[in-house]
Specification:
- The strands form 2 sheets. A 6-stranded parallel β-sheet has the order 3-2-1-4-5-6, sandwiched between helices.
- By secondary structure, the chain is α/β, with parallel strands linked by helices.
- The longest helix is centred in the C-terminal third of the chain and has 18 residues, at about 325-340.
- It has helices at about 20-35, 60-65, 70-85, 120-125, 140, 185-195, 205-215, 235-245, 260-265, 280, 295-300, 310-320, 325-340, 345-355, and strands spanning about 1-5, 40, 50-55, 90, 110, 130-135, 170-175, 195-200, 225-230, 245-250, 270-275, 290.
- The protein folds into 2 domains: about 1-155 and about 325-355, Rossmann fold (3-Layer(aba) Sandwich); about 160-320, Rossmann fold, CATH 3.40.50.
- The two termini are about 40 Å apart.
Length: about 350
């Protein structure tokens, strides 16, 4: 198949540090190429891929620091509209940005819903039912009526790049983008109540989040019990994951997946997360971690963390959340959609019948 993969352009594919969507896109692109498909990646020029790269700008927008970054999005969509007839299928990863443009492209469009849904996004997606929307968890599928007839596909990671460690060090870990809804303040509270060390790793984007970090998070960091290590590149992230006693995920939003949970478990590290969104799907309670309802229960779970068999964490990721499984699932979906698409002759006959009725 000739496949277009249309990626966000805020950061490169794959990301240098934070970027769950871009990491998944990279894994999907390279996996499809390995299976013999012809893939074109629409992404920024600092992306690294074996696919044919079509770029609207030399550098990703968070790095380029342009005066009018959204103008580059216009170039991004211009590239897609100029080339859309070259493909059998278009796989979009920009969701609500792309939906209006699907009226002007010939191939069917698959759109993975990488972000949490909201009333605003529901309104957009309801207006463009021609798109094959793909939720990334059963919980996300259940959250919207327009997803009732579609299958969800879990994100996948290259498990072999996450080394298993049966003997961690004595610290808890929190890894994400530093925003209030990711629960970094709750993670600090858990660590203090449990009397354990906590390492915080994450990036800070935007003035509002910079103020949040400066005035609410930073005063809690003492460099001893609570440590902030900044953004973590892939190697640093893996080192943090494999040596942690547990990953804390006190998310305060309906998380559609949560890639960090699978990355931690691939290294053997259990996850303790709040009972919301896809967390109960990713974490098998009392087997690969604990699913809890509040900070107090999370504190209690840290005291039972050694009851979790770290090998079970690794095995769950290998079975359910690997890159291979994800690539196979999307490949099957593409074929299903293309096979069901009416042929040119079928469309012509339909148009003739419509003309005769008129």
């Amino acid at each position: 198949m000739k496949i277009a993969q249309f990626a966000p352009i805020w950061i490169p594919v794959p990301p240098h540090t934070y970027g769950g969507t871009e990491f998944v896109v990279s894994e999907l692109v390279e996996g499809l190429i390995a299976k013999g498909h012809e893939v074109t990646l629409f992404a920024t020029g600092d992306s690294v891929t074996k696919a044919k790269l079509v770029s609207p700008w030399p550098a990703s927008l968070w790095r380029a620091r342009l005066g009018s970054p959204h103008a580059v999005w216009s170039l991004h969509y211009s590239n897609l509209l100029d080339r859309h007839k070259e493909f059998d299928i278009i796989h979009d990863h920009c969701t609500f940005y792309t939906a209006p443009f699907t009226r002007f492209v010939d191939p069917p469009v698959v759109s993975t819903l990488h972000r949490p849904l909201s009333p605003e996004t529901h309104k957009v997606f309801d207006r463009y039912p021609n798109v094959h929307y793909v939720p990334i968890s059963a919980d996300q599928k259940s959250s919207a009526a327009f997803l009732k007839n579609v299958d969800y596909i879990y994100n996948g990671i290259p498990v072999e790049r996450f080394p298993f460690n049966a003997n961690p060090k004595d610290y808890l870990l929190w890894v994400s983008k530093i925003i209030p809804t990711k629960g970094v303040l709750e993670a600090v509270k858990v660590a203090k109540l449990a009397g354990m060390k906590l390492i915080i790793a994450g990036n800070i984007v935007g003035e509002e989040n910079e103020r949040f970090f400066k005035y609410e998070v930073q005063p809690l960091i003492d460099g001893e019990q609570i440590t902030y290590v900044g953004e973590a590149d892939f190697e640093t992230k893996v080192k943090l994951f494999k040596n942690a006693r547990a990953l804390l995920c006190p998310f305060k939003r309906r998380e559609p997946f949560g890639l960090v949970m699978t990355e931690a478990m691939a290294c053997g590290t259990p996850v303790i997360g709040f009972r919301d969104g896809a967390i109960p799907e990713i974490v098998e309670h009392r087997v690969t971690g604990y699913v809890v309802d509040d900070v107090e229960q999370m504190v209690d779970a840290t005291k039972m963390i050694d009851q979790i068999d770290r090998k079970k964490c690794r095995e769950r990721v290998e079975a359910k959340f690997s890159t291979k499984r994800m690539v196979d699932d999307y490949e099957a979906l593409y074929k299903k959609i293309i096979e069901k698409r009416p042929s040119f002759m079928e469309n012509a006959a339909k148009n003739i019948r419509k003309f005769i009725r008129l």
